[in-house]
Amino acid sequence: MTNSIKGMPLFWCSALVIIFIAAIFAPALAPFNPIEQLDIVGLKNMAPNQIFLFGTDQFSRDVFSRMLFGARTTLGVALGATAISVAVGSVYGLIAGYYGGTADQLMMRGVDILMSIPRLLIVILIAALWNGMPITTLILILGLSGWFGISRLVRSKVISVRREDYILAAESVGADGTRIITKHILPNIAPTIIVCTTLALAQFIVMEAGLSFLGIGIQPPTPSWGNILRDGMSDLGRQWWLSVIPGMFISVVAIAFNSLGDILRDHLEPRKQ
Amino acid sequence: MVTTVATIVFALAHLAPGDPLSYLGGSPAINTSLKQQWIAAEGLNRPVYEQYFSYVGSVLTGDFGWSYSTNQPVSSVILQAVPYTIGLTLLAVILAFIVGICVGVTQSTRKDSFYDRVMTGTTMILHSLPDFWLAILLLLGFAYYLPIFPIGGAHDPIMFEYMTSWGKLKDLAAHAVLPVITLTLILAATVARYQRDEMLRTLSSEYVRYARAAGIGQSRIIWHHALRNSLLPAITLFGITLPIVFTGAVFVEKIYAWPGIGWTLLNAFSTRDYPLIIGGVIICSAAVVAGSQLADLLYKIADPRLIGGDESGELRLNSVDRLNASVRSGHNRSDNDKRSGNDPRSRTYIADHDLNNKA
Q1: Contact criterion met (CB < 8 Å) for A247 and B132
Q2: Percent of residues, chain B, with pLDDT higher than 70
Q3: Does residue A4 surpass a pLDDT of 70?
Q4: How many CB pairs under 8 A join A and B?
Q5: Of B130, B251, B353, the CB nearest to A199
Q6: CA A250, CA A245: separation in Å to the nearest integer?
Q7: Max Cα separation, chain B?
Q8: Half-sphere exposure of B190 (CA within 13 A, CB side)
Q9: Which of B286, B271, B319, B116 is nearest to B199 (CA)?
Q10: pLDDT 10s digits, A103-117
Q11: Is A250 close to B1, i.e. CB distance below 8 A?
């Protein structure tokens, strides 16, 4: 799938590294307090200029500082949700794939049912019923609703690895299930899990931003790329920077993770033709 | 299936904090005895299992309750929105498949050319772009800075009633252009990525080499022989995409104020109209399930060879798996799997991921 123009992946990945570094050092880099309303009369809705690199919003807050701190929220939520979904999905897939039989059938049938429920709608429903949610709940909900695909992929890899002779050898010397799974199967399916992780990161970043954009995810005044974008929607024509800049960052990170996933897939899992 | 969704929704609603009348706000005029009266009238003091059965019963008969923000039955609110969403998504999906397949095929015939590289980069970017951002960019560009298209809604708020039917149609079309383009661009990128891969695989197969040897022209080989055989993943993708676009259009509908299901649901969310939210979620879920059934059916019609493979009982495959199976192993799924130990599910996540991005 990847045959992009040479150097493009490098560009995306370096952009990713810069954004991560900026997020880590946000308190040192941010020129202003991200939630402080500097001067609600004099400094509101300013277009990007030398002092306010990304302009100010309708509450006269500095968008550049909000973007820096928003990167922490957005990337943090995505990392947390990815960790949960990859962990749950891998364990579920390992168990189902290794033990097989009725357990596997039941487990996979459950995943099929869960996958057919539209995720976005359920999240909207939960957010409506719980009256908004704290960040930890958001991470949990995203993570716990995102592992189905991963578990199926891991399971299929486990099934093909399980047929190999070295697993048979390990079984014949009396190694138990847990040992075989952790010492023999896991290292062999690690590349798959790594590829999944990068693709999941792209997906969760877009999801968090989308939910915050709808007013369901991160609640203001805590900045996240999604809700900065949302702030801009109230008067889109006159504050283009509020919507265009966060969207650009979300896109760059998503493109970077997706192309990283493509590269990793081509290198770690050469397709059998 | 509808019962499962209704059960989950019911459980969520009952696990949620707060009492059932909290949406009324803390008005002092509503005292405790009045509250008790209302709770009894709504049957909320009955045992949970009784409420559950009566709820699922009414959902199965199509009764979703009363939407108090619009003051209509939930089912009629949803019915008003459905044509807008279906019109928008159907048009976008059809256009996306035409564009996507053409781009994928032309790329595969010029593999590694400048055109192929540029398009690969472009589809990669479009495929990763969040649809809400693309919608905002198009809205800014073509409705605000270059006021070619109207800003939002499905028709002119004042003049629409006085238009002739031709005028009404033109007005609707003008309002639909930007939402349709947004959805089309993003979907077409995904389709093109699949089509390019599949077409490359088909072009390297033996019957294509044979056709070349027999002296059949390049364009006939591509458009007549190879394309037909590489369309299977696209057909499955079509069936899976339709319902996912249906729920994924939430963002696009929100930005262009297109009065479809997504827009209705978000309005219900902001007014805390619980019966409408719950009814909408159940109906959308049913649509998603119906779509995946349709995908299964389409696939069987398109490729009768796979029905036999299904009955081997080795693995129960659903449409996403089949899509990946065919993408991976060039349709000879059951043979290939047995020989090489390839599992058709192995690329599942990639397709799931591609589609989830849209949802």
Answers
A1: yes
A2: 72
A3: no
A4: 187
A5: B353
A6: 9
A7: 89
A8: 29
A9: B116
A10: 888 888 888 777 767
A11: no
